[in-house]
Design goal:
Elements: H1 2-5, H2 25-29, E1 36-41, H3 55-59, E2 64-69, H4 80-87
Parallel strand pairs: 1-2
């Protein structure tokens, strides 16, 4: 991401995580008003973080939420469309 954004003077901020690997939702609140928030589900540690479903309500309607899904995980977890329609109330 840094390589793509460096010429455009886009400031990238990283979301903090708890010691157990889940997102620190307070750091997500600091991202409100930015152009977008990018997260992966499951995250790079292989954790299906339930906090991801709360991100959109925290960052607001004017901030894009971009969620990458690891294709290999789809052999074990339900399809992304089913997950988001069930757990995200936007």
């Amino acid at each position: 991401m840094s390589n793509y954004c460096q010429g455009a003077e886009i400031n990238i901020k990283l979301l903090r995580h708890h010691p157990d690997g889940t997102l620190d939702l307070d750091s997500v609140a600091e991202a409100a008003g930015s152009c977008g928030v990018y997260v992966e589900q499951p995250n790079p540690l292989g954790i299906l973080d339930g906090g991801v479903s709360q991100i959109k309500s925290i960052i607001g309607e004017n901030t894009a939420l971009i969620v990458a899904v690891q294709p290999v995980s789809l052999g074990l977890v339900e399809a992304p469309g089913q997950f988001w329609s069930r757990y995200c109330r936007w």
